[in-house]
Every structure is written in C-alpha cells, then in structure tokens.
Description:
By secondary structure, the protein is α+β, with helices and mostly antiparallel strands.
Amino acid sequence: MTKRLLILFIVFILSFVQVTLRLYAIATEGNEVYAVQAQRQQQAELTLCQRGGLITDCRGEPLNYEECGYAALVEPDDCGDLLRAARRLAAASELTVKEAEKRLEQGAPFGIMLHAPVEEEGIICFPALQRRATPPAIHLVGTLSADGSRARSGMEAAYESYLRSCSARVYAALQKTAAGGLLSTKAALIDEGYHRASGVMTTLDIRLQEALEQATEGLVSGAAILMRLDGSIAAAVSRPAYGGDEVGALLDSEHGELINRVLAPYNVGSIFKLVVAAQTLERGAQTPVFNCPGSVMVEGRVFYCHKRDGHGLLTLEEAMEKSCNVYFISLLLQQGEEGYFATLEMARKLGIDDGSLLCRGVAEQAGNLPVEIWSGRLAANLAIGQGSLLATPLDLAQLTCCIASGGMLQQPRLIEGMLQEGKLLRDLSDGKSEPVRLLSVETAQKLRHMMEETCRRGTGTTAQPEGFSVAGKTASAETGWVEQGEPVVHGSFAGYFPADDPQFGLVVIVENGKSGSVSAAPIFREAAQRTMEILNGSEEPRKMPE
C-alpha cells in the first residue's frame, strides 16, 4: 500500500513538473504575442489616419494617393493656453473657436484633420494621405467603385487583394483602467507602416507622366507613350481621359473614354517604312534609286505619294527623309515575295500580332498583319503601312526603342515589384524575357541616321525641340472611315531623344490628325522638351513623409 502511494506521489510530482515546464515554455515562446495582446486589452486606440495599399511610381511616390492636409493628435493636458490652442485649431480646421475650445476643455486626447499644420504645444501634426479620385495614368492605375469597396480597373483591380493587405494607419494609444476608463490622458503615437510604402511599385515616373499629360491636353482623341530604352514604360496617356467618379456614367459612352488607346491597335501608316527599310538592310538587298512621279500603278490601282507632283529621283535615305510612298512601294515590289514575307516576319518578331501582358488585368490588344499571300496590291499597302496592318502605340514604341538602342528588342514592362514597408520585396522584372537582337548594329545605325535626318530637314522638322536633337518618323494613316464626308486619317509620330544619346522612345497618335508632321510632331516636341527639362533639373527622388 505504502509503495503504491509512493508511486502515485512520484507520478503526480512528475506530471506537475511537466505541466509547469509546458506553461513556462508557452509563456516564453509566445511572450511577444501575448504581451502585445495584453497591452491592447489595456489600451484604447484612437485612429488618426489610415490608407490602403499604395501604387507608386519608380521613385516611390504614390500614384493612387496624394498628400492632402494634416492629421493631428491633440493632447489638451499638454496645451499651455487652451484659448490660443482653440483659435489655432479653428483657423486650420472646420471647427469654430467655441467648438475647439469645448473639445479641449474635455481633457481627453482627440484626433483632427487640418488643412494646415499647427505649431502649438500639445498638438502633434503630420502630413496625411487621401485617395486620388483621378490618379495620373488613370487608364493604367485604375479606379475604385464610388464607395471605395472594390477596384474597377487597371492595377487597382489586378492587385486588389494584395493592396488590401497593405493597409496602414497612425493611431494614438491610451492606457485604460480595469473598468474601461482612461488611466492617463497621455497618448502614445503609433505608426503602423503609414509612412513606409507598401503595395506595388511601377515603372512610371509621376513627373514625366504629368508632363506628358500636360503636353497632350489639347489632344481630343489619341494616345501617347514614353518608354525607356530598356522597355520600361515611363508615362502613358490615353485621350479622351475621364474622372474617377465618372466611370458609371461613361459605360455606354460613344467616345470611348474608358478605352486605353495606348494598348489598342491603330492603322500604322508611314512609320512602318522603318520595318521595310530594316528588313531590306538586314538581308543585304539592293536599295536602288527610284523615280517618284507622284504616283504608281499596281495591279490596276493607283497609289499616290503625299507630294502629288513627285519627288523625282531618290535614294533610300532621301525617301525615308521625305516619306515617299512611291519609293517604298517600288522597293518592296522589286523584292517580290521574298521581301514581302521578310517584312511580315520582322513585324511578327516585333510582336505586332501578339498582345503583351503588362500585368494581370492590364493587357495590350493584338495588332494585325496581312495574310500570308503574295500580291502586288498587298505588298504596296504593306510597304507604306496601309491596308489591314494594325499596331498599337506600345508596339511602335518598342520598334523605336529597338532602333535607338542599337537593334536590341526589349519586352515592355510596367511593374517593378511588390513593396513592403518601403523595401522592394519581390522584383517582378525577374523572369522577364531577355532582350533579343532584332537588328544588327549596322542596320540600327543606318536607321538612326535616317530618322535623325528626317527631323533635321525632312517631314519631322516640327518635332525638333530647343537645346537638343531628336530623331523620328512621321505618318498619316488612312483608316477607311469617313466622317462628315471626309476620310479619317490618323496623324502620328514615333521617335527617340536625345538623338546623340538616346534615353527615351516616344510615340504620339492623333486620331483624325491628318498629317503627322502637323498634328503629332508638335506634341512630341513639347513632351520631349518637358521631359528633358525635368531630368536636367536633377530633382531628388521623393520619399513618403516621415
């Protein structure tokens, strides 16, 4: 009996020790978690400002939020002169002096939004963010529903769940008594990641985006895209634009405000002459002198040059500079089926008939290439970028950057990666296709020379800004549409700058702009000028306020 009791006693002691050790382990391992939970049960939280996840530009500046006023924590017990504090609060807020004074007299800390900072003992102010109703690059960034409960389009929709997980706030913590009252009127200010960017970082630059939007303000309908030579999109504009609060009313609009024209296919026109010249030079085909009398007959159809009395005898370089239709039609007809199919193949390698996926939910529409059948008429149309050929402004920007970079074709890129508390958590540029050599260095150099001469003394002189040189190609693309008895002809310009040290490709398309040199090139000139002025200003990257 005694032995049995002894055994039971030992078992009890061992069990007790085991339970004690387990409780100690739990207390030790979960100390931080339990401590935080216990602390929160003992404190009251006063939220001063909060935000959702950020979509930022390449420098970390928010695109979907903007600084708007100030949030303030007011601690009445620390205010030396309540009347003076009330007057200053009233001057910077919607409160009257009496209302501010009454809140101060209650003694409890409170939060308030201000339109100007208040320098007063007992009042702590810091810049606050509010969501932009109409963000820059709205067709890419996207919008939210009227109540902010869900994303409607663009990157807001593509990364909706992740952006929701990146919500942050600033709050004041107050200690409570066991009964729930305030133990002290002294508050602790807690920043839960509000001033450290979390969300999605894009390749856009808000400074260059705003400059491109300003340069295209007079553009009724069309598109413009600014691309770095590495394929990253620096800015993009689609016109007509829209306000973030207008989405519902525009769903049935006939003007297509919600369409992102940067990613939509257009008739190309003479910009495609660059592709014809490129495949010719790459294959080492002959580039003879042709005579332009102003028109050429192909299989019973007359194709006109924009200079109806003709350009006379022209070399390839002179034909590009003057954008002579007759020359390029003659060149491709002379090359026959081999030249025709080589041109189609180069266009296919450019990705004209494939749509690029910039990010989930933001995709380029596929363009269109003529059928794989040889005929004189098909070749004539292809030579001058007409007929069934369609390409997006994004496609043309890739072509331009390829030539400017010495023949290397880059995949377009919009997203840099995911941000977590100010750090690039995951670089989404990883895994992208490596650049491929589309053109030899020699071919790219010859095309660059032609594009530079086009802007120096040819059809692109109206694109030339002050202080630096540019290179490019004009186009007037027939669409086959008729409005008010007149044919609809899009004017466009594709080029790069600075010509001697290329940094950007820029494409401008003006719907029914008739002439690229008249309608699109001046917009190119202004956008290029604004871009270089910003970059030469050496502005430091902007950071979230601290």
